[in-house]
Amino acid sequence: MANGRVTAVCSGAERGKGKTRVREAMLIAGAGLEGDGHARGGARQLSILSGETAKRLNEEHGLGAQPGDFAENILTEGLDFARLNVGDKLKIGNAVARITEIGKPEHGPNDFNFKGFAPLAKTGLFAEIIVGGRVKEGDAISRIESE
């Protein structure tokens, strides 16, 4: 089972820019993270990035990236991304999200990146919110086993 915890929750009203760390936020079913520019429904309502990936990029390239700098909504620790697949459900705090994409196509030079790095495009999880709820730093995040 893939289990971890939320280390940061980030939101940004404008699409294509970094996000700001917030203490907690509401995940709205069918929409996304309340107040975020991507909370408009669709397949990419929520973006989730491995904290281990962010840490590795910081260490290898001296980026100094902070939570939200890679435009992620949720930064995790301990969640085994290698064991997750499109269609898997994640319990995030008391909300539930379904993974819709792993990575995404990079569209061109105007796509968002932080100092030339865009880890969401390579290994980030994109999800739709199927059960709404509040999410905050320290919340558990885990794959819901199929019944």
Put the structure in a nutshell:
This protein has 147 residues and is mainly beta.
What is the strand and helix layout of this fold?
Layout: E1 3-11, E2 20-22, E3 24-28, E4 32-33, E5 46-50, H1 51-61, E6 74-77, E7 89-92, E8 95-102, H2 119-123, E9 125-131, E10 133-136, E11 140-144
Parallel strand pairs: 5-6
Antiparallel strand pairs: 1-2, 1-6, 1-11, 3-4, 3-10, 5-9, 7-8, 7-11, 8-9
What does this entry look like structurally?
- With 147 residues, the chain is mainly beta.
- It has one domain (3-144): Beta Barrel (M1 Pyruvate Kinase, Domain 3), CATH 2.40.33.20.
- 11% of the residues lie in helices and 38% in strands.
- The strands form two sheets. A seven-stranded mixed beta barrel has the order 1-6-5-9-8-7-11.
- The chain starts with a strand and ends with a strand.
Fourth-level CATH superfamily? PK beta-barrel domain-like
Alpha-carbon distance between the two ends: 14 Å
Shape: globular
- Count of extended strands: 11
| CATH architecture classification | Beta Barrel
**String of helices and strands:** EEEEEHEEEHEEE
Largest sheet: 7 strands, mixed, barrel
Mean pLDDT: 87
